[in-house]
Amino acid sequence: LSMRKYLDEWNVFDSLSRVSDFFRLSNAEFTKKDNDTYSLDVDGSCLYQDYEIARNRLMMRESNLYSEMHTSSKKGLKLRQWAKNRMPSYLNPEGIYSSHHLSELENMSPDDLHEEYGNVSLYNWVHAYQCLVELSKEELRKRFSSKKPIPLQVDRWLIIKSRENWLSFFKRKGMAEDVAKKVIGYFTFNSKSHDLNDCPFIPCVDGLCLMPALIAHSSATRSLMSLFGSKKISQAGKGRFHEQQFLRQVRAAGIKASPIETHANFQCDCVMLIDDHLIFTELKSNGQPIYYGKYYQQLCNIIGDSSLIYDGNNKLLRSYIEQIDRISTHYLNHLDIIINEFNLPVDWQPKGVHKIIVTTTMLGGKYHSDNVFVVDKYSLSSFLQRVPGVIFQNNEEGDRIKNIIDGYEHCTGEITIEKFLNYLYCLPSVSAVRKNIKKLTYSVRFDETLIYHPYYDSWAFGPYIRKEDERIN
Q1: Residue-number span of the structural domain to which 217 is assigned
Q2: Tell me, what's the pLDDT at 239?
Q3: Tell me, what's the pLDDT at 144?
Q4: What is the pLDDT of residues 32-74, one digit of tens each?
Q5: CB 407 within 8 A of CB 431
Q6: Whether 278 contacts 354, CB under 8 Å
Q7: Beta-strand (E) ranges in 120-214?
Q8: How many structural domains does the chain have?
């Protein structure tokens, strides 16, 4: 029932899950050191480091957004005023931040958060989870402000209510009864749940219990993203929002762009035209894989593998690369469709043809393959918005100077095809994090067995680190 015991057990579970993932998905090798000690290691091409780079980039974006929402700068004040005028009045400051964060991860404007997932609006999802976070924080404040020791009894360390009382709790917070019932059902832990963060209600004899020591420190956004995936909650509109947002952003950058939908079997999400070069674009709304296995599967979907998986029509699933190759070949053989769409001269010919997959999944590596670029929308946004990454350093005189990070020089000035391609080749947002990532060795004890295993971290610290093996270039 204590937070410390839960975290200790979670650390063991997380480490064993990591060991399992290394063994299943990364060609890891076990070496027996003695009777009860084993060492697990992987080679330099291990995909797990890419996963950690992606997680790092996602957390940095989350941190930056949090700072923007809570700062007293003009941008922060503008964001909060915008939210006050446009978002539901029942959202507190943390709920406003979580809504902004969720809208960014789901490729929506905050206006679009009235969209329903599982017949519950995204605003209600955020509000419901944030209510549990606030309830848990208040419970902990009461405990730690008490001058009397709290007995080690279950009902004193958990929040236990009947389903009817939880329903009343959400209704008091402004939620409709039918919505509250759906939320309670989704929040209840079962065999499809991943952990107690995404499904915080534990069924018990007296109803449903909540562990405040855990939920008080939970991220509403990350927990909901995990919940949507683990319980396969319907997210039908996700792809549409990604396409709309991408087209707006590309056109705002002064690039000619249009979806091509003249043939049902050869729909192209977006064709861009830069300096008379055609860029066929496939947009994929995959969300953020919270766990390594999901990240691995996303890359299999992009690049393809040898699993020969069949779809519902008993046809082999195409990788994203195969899809864009097939679509681009069709329209190059029917160039008149492109010419008509962009009002080009009838004898027009492209100076070059390029293919790109833009995914909403934050990536941690370069996966360009078969003349197809693979990039996440966060990396591409920096280029389209002409926002170069910078680093502040002290010179010899001790003055603080601002330098553009290598690769971001392509994000300055007018957009050209040369800058566009060079940016895709180097992907500076990925390369910058990769330079700092370190391969560490962690250990986990399971009964009498001690297992050493690798861990990739771009800000290495903490008591569990045994040694630093190498810096990855």
Answers
A1: 59-230
A2: 62
A3: 77
A4: 988 899 999 988 778 889 999 998 888 887 777 777 666 655 6
A5: yes
A6: yes
A7: 120-121, 159-161, 202-204, 207-210
A8: 2
